[in-house]
Every structure is written in C-alpha cells, then in structure tokens.
Write a structure and sequence with these properties.
Shape: globular
Distance between the termini: 43 Å
CATH class of the largest domain: Alpha Beta
Largest sheet: 6 strands, parallel
CATH superfamily of the largest domain: P-loop containing nucleotide triphosphate hydrolases
Number of helices: 18
Number of strands: 8
Length: 336
Amino acid sequence: MPTLTPQAFRAQVASGATDPVYLIIGDDDHEKSSLALALGEMVEADLRAFNVERLYALDATVTPMVVAEAARTLPMIAPRRVVIVLQAEKLFDPKKKRKAAADAESDDDEAAGSLEPLDDYFANPSPTTALAFVFSSPEGGKGPADIPLARNLKVTKALVKVATVVVCTGLDGGKDPGRWIEQQAAAAGLSVERAVVARVLQVSGGDTGRLRADVEKLLLFASGAGRLTLEHVAAVAGAPEHRSDDWALVNAVQRGDVVAALRELKAELDEGDNGAPFRILGQLGAAVRNPNARTPFPTRRVPTAVDALLRTDLALKSSGGDPQVLLERLVVELCG
C-alpha cells in the first residue's frame, strides 16, 4: 500500500499520472479539502461538469453501488474522470454495518452487506478514473495515519490492496509551526518578526487548521506591504463583535473593507444558528454574481471570487475545517 505526502500527491496530479484509487486521511482537514479540490482541477475547466463528480457519503442516496457506477463511467472528451467521495467513513462503516461487523468478527459478505459493489470495483478499478475517498479527522484513533475502517471487512482488505494513501497531518509533516510561518511569509515576499509569529500562534490556539487559515488570510491581507506586522494580525484575526444591518457584510466585501467585513462576519455567526454559514455563503455568492447590485462586484475579480466560493462550499460540505475559519478566509479573498 503506497503512501504519499500531500506534496507528492500534488505532483502526481500536476503530471496527470494519477493512481486509480486514493485514500486521503489525517487530522489536517484544511489540507484534505485542498487536495480534493486540486484533484478535481486536474480536469480542464470546461469539461469538469461532465468529468468531475463529488459525492457526500452522508447523503442517503450515495450508496456503494452509486460510487462504483460513477467510477466506471467513461470520461467525456477528456483522458481522465475524477470521483471524490467526501466523509467516506460513512460509506464504508455506517452504524448498522459497524455493529454487524463487530458481532460477526469476520470478513464474510454478510458482514460487508451492500459494500460488495465496491469490493468488485477494487478488484478491477477503471484505468481512466481517479477515485478518491476523503476521510474525516480521526476520533480517538492511534494516530492520524490510521485508516479509520473496520479491518475485518473484506472490502477494507480489497481497498488497502489497490489504494494509494495520502496522509495529511500537522504542518507539512510536523514542522515547527513558528518556522513554518516564517517560511510561508518568505515565500510571499514578506518578512516577519518573532513577536508577530508568537501572536499568530497564540491566536490559532494550537489548532492546525486555524493556523493555516490565519496565515493564508494574513498573506493575502499584507500582500505588497513588505512585512507582516502586529497590526495586520489584529485586523485579520482580532475583529471584535458588532451588530449591524443584514447587508453589512456584503456591503463591506463590495467596498473591499476587510476589517469591517470580518467584524460583520463574526457578528452574523455569533447571532446565527447552525445554518448560518451556508446562508452567509449563499448571500456572498449572490452578491458576487449579481451585476445589477447597488455596488456591483468588480468584473475583473468575478472569476477568482467564484472559484473561492466553490472551494469554500466544498470545504463546508465536506467538513474541511471550522466554518468560521473557512468563511473568514473567503471574506479576505473576496475583499481582494
């Protein structure tokens, strides 16, 4: 069972020489979401609607048979088809199958149940499809590199034989987070003092996904400034709560006022329910796509903005990070 780093996986995708089946696992949700997006972008933009299929295992209609049929479908006017299954552990090990497997303690077909179509597919995967199973972060496992599946199932054994595992853990394999921040800043043409690095680490609270997102926002926000400062950190990561009108967030984004936009975003999330992230995403998407808005979104920035919206939508639906972190990063990108 070959194992790849995220960097090696990206290199494969860039070359177009992808393996037939991938398991994308680990505790870095941000990185997993990014890799899933990169795999889909391997297909030419105009052909993605026909050749890129994202399936959410939490959806009751997404069964092993549906996944196998999607993977066997031939690509249309393209060399490769991509099928991405998000929250894949729900597909392989739903509660009813987990109990049956535990009671049986065997790998027979009865314990595997309706997983047989995947078992058959793994025995002969399509050479023209890249099928990726993206697993949620482990809970109480031995480590982020563990495959979170019942090992006694026949389908698990078949999967392990054919799949390439991509492990997403920590900051690029466990580098020192402070040093990592300095490297990211240097790559963006920015210098950064130790006090700024310390403050960024403090704000992240030890959350790897939050740290990645905060640094990404800071680099966007400080682009061209020459260096990262504590003022940048305060503006991007230290926005206070604020109540305002229903369109304050959209108006701030359209003005390009990132500080006000982050403040309004926090207020909406604090006051909203569990559906607030998707409602906010929809509101921002409508504003970007509406040329007749009171303050239209700059035309030259629409393609990049739509790309950011789609990326955030995928991450939200696949539990690819904290919703507030994902939306904060989106707001910074939309503000330009």
